[in-house]
Amino acid sequence: MAERAPHPDTPELRARWGSFAWTNVNAEKVREIIGRYPEGRQRSAVMPLLDLAQRQVGQETSTQGWLPLPVMEYVAAQLDMPIIRVLEVATFYMMYNIAPVGRFHVQVCGTTPCMLRGSDDIMDACYARGMKKGHTTADGLWTLSEVECMGNCASAPMVQINDANYEDLTPARLDAVLDALARGEQPKEGTQDPARHTVEPVGALSNLNAMADGNHDYRGEWATAPA
Amino acid sequence: MVSVDAQAETEMPTVTVDGTEIEVPDGATVLQACELAGKEIPRFCYHERLSIAGNCRMCLVEVKPGPPKPQASCALPATQGQEIRTDSEMVKKAREGVMEFLLINHPLDCPICDQGGECDLQDQSVAYGRGGSRYHENKRAVTEKYMGPLIKTIMTRCIHCTRCVRFSEEVAGVDEIGALYRGEDMQITTYLEHAAKHELSANVIDLCPVGALTSRPYAYEARPWELKKTLGIDVSDAMGSNIRIDARGREVLRVLPRNNDDVNEEWLSDKARWQVDGLARRRLDRVWIRRDGKLQPASWDEAFGMIAAAARGASVAAVAGDLLDCETMFAARRLMTALGSDLLESRQTGMSYPVGNLAGVNFNTTFAGIETADAVLVVGSHLRWEAPLLNVRLRKAAKRGAKIFIVGPYWDTTYAAEFLGDDASILHDLPDHVAAAMQSAARPAIVVGAGGLVAGAHGPALALAHAWNVVRDVDGVRWNGFNVLHMAAARMGALMLGFARPRGIADLAQAAPAVLLSLGADEVDYTRFTGALKVYVGHHGDKGAAAADIILPGSAYTEKAGTYVSTEGRVQFADKAAFAPGDAREDWTILRALADALGVSVGFDSFEQLRSAMIAEIPGLGVDGLVDFGPLPAAESAERAGGTIVYPVKDFYLTNPIARASATMQRCSAELLHGENLAEAAE
């Protein structure tokens, strides 16, 4: 995490992104987004606008997208807010990439539930394919990050790749997903366990069995409250 | 009963602090309640003049009713019937815990830290910490951030209180410092590490509770306990900011603001703070006499002899400079009177606004008062450069909803303001919405700056003041909305002492005096006095000394006690912090000796006699506080404003001889105003 830093402000960066402007489609969206907030409160639109900008940069570079400094300045100017406030937002949230990323941004969850369910193996599987944390592979296809909890603990371990979650992973299942992405296919999102539809229990119920067929009041069966 | 309780809640809640029952004002926080009860609450992020952040957690106290855990008192409103404990075991443990967490990532570099000895973290860890560390892991390290020529950063020491962020956003109005990243990686920085570019930037040094932001010019100069602290008054602008001059031996090492809610609150402009290194450079420390076109060292007797020879039976005149104390000017006035001359002037650049009634050239609303104005018309003043701390007050007014209109060229205000045009003649034909806003305002105010005075806007502005009835009673309190903003610290004192001729300095030039006594006057066009023997009494080898025939070395504002009158007519006293270098003397002693040389009597032999003679003549100068100049004078209707307004300050950092001699100010000017990159050269 600590190596996160905005891509350096160089003349090349200015030359490439200094003339950034919304596409017609996005300009329409921006109007709609800013319109959601009361007059004089347009700064509230900074997060959706940064997201939109990141996506537009992604389209232009065939990557997940990131936020070059001139693009942040463009958003700041549009919302009439100091650039430092925009940079604060962009650096605070991990979902904003402040340095270039590859076509697929593989974000492996390493928080406790995923770790207990084998996220280390998932990480190793990524390393085995030549990925390195915080770096983009030479072919420009993969960027690897370790992230904190994504809220998919019931189907741990998981990775998020761009906008899609892939859950119930094993190294083999991850490989299948990554291979499919590399081929240009769109693998099925969500759980990768064939026995599972979403996050329902795998196999037989292990607890709250009496609830399977109907409502059941457990309260009488509880032990007396701890002292 | 219910109604009584409800009333008590809306008015003055009663709380119990450590068993003592006290009433606190409605809206007070628990922290303020504890302070009212005389309890010290440690804190880092909380600051009276900034918004509440509640992120350092040092102010934890125990409050009932409430959750059974310590609570941050700075962000908790005091309510009726609260029982607050600041001395319980829980509070002690909570403080020790917070302190331990803060110190986990704080380096143990106090011996090489400039904050040492005046560090909140140091003091509070002694008072409230555990006294030992249980932490053996690696500490966090953060790269230094460049913040300009005044602020030195050692960001590993930062405890993320965000006072600096809140100051620049809320008080200065220049959003340039921010907190990037999150959690353990949080870092305070300016955008792309640009220098902090505003006139109050160095105040974050005072605000920083640790040694993360320290002063660059003062780095490794001294420890606080080595310094002699003297109470002084700032002369870099006409605000009369209250300062503390820290000196070691005869060297002034730094200047810090003193708290005065009526004047500078607790802020200080960067120039007032750091021009003092100019006190050690380009000093006039001996007598010089111009011979064959070149200044050559001489003795006092030679100089006095030359002056006496030139002044015998001939006319003499005196010009007062911008940094003078009242005592010096009074001594000069006594000398001139004894010589039979009334050729006294202080408005060096040739202004000649009427001074028959000083209420017409005073900042009548007062600095604290202008905060409450609801419509302000500024005529020809670049406030950020002419009085940065007044700009802070106007920003507060603007935040409360005041409409602010400015006549004059555009400058970057730190609040919403409407620029009406560059030409002063617009005063005779104001747009309807401006006139309507000023007329309908409950507390209208007009501020005429130096640019406006030069463009002849004084009379028309006074006429507008009468038309809009800006002197009125608001809620039973007198409101006087007419203000003139001077830029010279000496101006109001000089005007009170009669250093003003009806036609300004042109009267002096016309009288063609044989001797022109220049008291630190560096802005005068001396080519108008070619026939005169120009005697410069001053402390810096600047423009005035360059034009002088005789130089008598005087004292700067830190080297003499004196009385100053700020632009709001506030009389304040300053003490002597250090001795002047070399042969330099306190100015009044030079004038006293000159009187002997000229064979006249000025009627005082000591500073005390001088001061009591001055107070006897002008009683107002003897009373600390605002002078009452009486009602506003009538406007001279004939005067018409016209012409493009030009702001007199071309370079904020180099407005007076001390600042021009200061390496720090020169660097600020080059780097912040002229964009030169000197960052490397200074390391």
TrEMBL record, chain A:
Molecular function (GO) terms for this protein are: 2 iron, 2 sulfur cluster binding; active transmembrane transporter activity; inorganic cation transmembrane transporter activity; metal ion binding; monoatomic cation transmembrane transporter activity; NADH dehydrogenase activity
Q: Which reaction does it catalyse?
A: a quinone + NADH + 5 H(+)(in) = a quinol + NAD(+) + 4 H(+)(out)
Instruction: List, alphabetically, the InterPro entries matched.
Output: NuoE-like, NuoE_dom, NuoE_N, Thioredoxin-like_sf
- Residues binding [2Fe-2S] cluster, per UniProt: 109, 114, 149, 153
Report the superkingdom from the record.
Answer: Bacteria
What the record notes about the co-factor is: Binds 1 [2Fe-2S] cluster.
Give the protein's cofactors.
Answer: [2Fe-2S] cluster
Instruction: Note the PANTHER family from the entry.
Output: NADH DEHYDROGENASE [UBIQUINONE] FLAVOPROTEIN 2, MITOCHONDRIAL, NADH DEHYDROGENASE UBIQUINONE FLAVOPROTEIN 2, MITOCHONDRIAL
In the record, the note on similarity to other proteins reads: Belongs to the complex I 24 kDa subunit family.
List the protein's name.
NADH dehydrogenase
- What are the leading ranks of the lineage? Bacteria, Pseudomonadati, Pseudomonadota, Alphaproteobacteria, Sphingomonadales
